[in-house]
Amino acid sequence: MPTGVEHLTVEPIARLIEEFNKLPGIGPKTASRLTFYLLRANEEQAGALAQAILEVKEKTLYCSRCHNIATSDPCNICNNPHREQSAVMVVEEPLDVLAFERIGVYRGLYHVLHGAISPVEGINPDDLKIKELLARVKVEPINEVIVATNPTTEGRATQHYIARELIPTGVKVTALAQGLPVGGDLEYADEVTLERALENRREV
Amino acid sequence: MRGRDRLYRTEAVILRRSDFGEADRLLTLFTARYGKRRVLAKGARKTTSRRAGHVELFNRAELQLATGRNLDIVTDAQIVDAYKRLHEELPRLSYAYYVAELLDKLTGDDEENPPLYNLVVDTLHTLDTIPAAALDLVARFFELHMLNLLGYRPNLFNCTSCQTPLTEAADRWSAAGGGMLCPVCAGLEPHALPISLPAFKALRFLQREPLAATEQLQRLSEPLRQEIERVLRATLRPILERDLKSVEFLDAVRFAS
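Predict the joint structure of the above. Result:
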């Protein structure tokens, strides 16, 4: 990849710039800036970064139960006896688990799909951890599956597909409410969101 | 003044969408005025975005766009039709994905084609409202008429090879030529596909009648529908030069239930 720094004779610098440049959202300019910052930083800081990069690959794995990224298998959440074992929240990505854990309100378990159904991208139900979810529902004492996929067409397609697969098992399948975002402006809301907000209204 | 040229409005259907940068979305639009066009919806992944709900996949929306350096940017969006049932029922949605992929693969950027836009809007509307038993026929109608509008009109009234008017004796389809063959020409083409008279008649009906009439074909038997599907798929294959990804999902939804 041309980074505009081919004239640099110092090979380690060119190499680091090239590596940074491969990362998403980082162009040649930012890559050079990061490289020269590290060049000037002390040994300790550069070492810590290198170590962290190595460990992110070495010390993480996927939990065989919920398929979240973890440091142990089963992961800390699956292994925690204080979590409710009867509820499973289905999310698209590990980052969605983080979003829910940050608010600390949900006390049940998770199941990470690693994506959402997207036929045009060639992502079909078999490419996601849906079979694994079905298997869990059959053997674990699960009463409720909360489908928390994104409120997008793909997320909803995934939600409907999961519901269709799970309903014969008799488990309760719920989905997150949809409505107006905090800090949003009513007049800019699209008709689908407004309609759902009205449907899901509640007494105050 | 330069500022005046930078903003423009058009109606569009959102065919495809992918994540872009931190919180943006890259949209593939099929517009009434400019054909297919890729544009950027800034901040559309944030929950507080004022535009996100308006530019959901398969929505028909009125958009205001600003000319950008590379990609044009959505500055305002208003839903014209959100096709609600289509988004709520998997079989309808799987056909919408198929129609969108077919259109995306067969059209180039900025090729203006207003009749094709009208066909797309009519097709999505019909997929949203028609009884579920007729969904596949809507897809067949779309295939047939899209071929027509892109200059590949299948011959259903004259022989594809020698142009003689066809009679009910015709029973062969040329996938390469994209149409029916008379019995004489059929003998000369070893790769011609057999086609039954009811399938031939159903194709004629779909080509001649408006989309709304498709509902009348609801009672066609499943084997007959599969025959029509096979014939059209064989015709599309040499034009597409690849398999469509959405077909797998279509089959998964159709045959699992």
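Strands of chain B lie at 7-20, 24-31, 35-41, 60-66, 72-81, 172-174, 179-181, 193-194.
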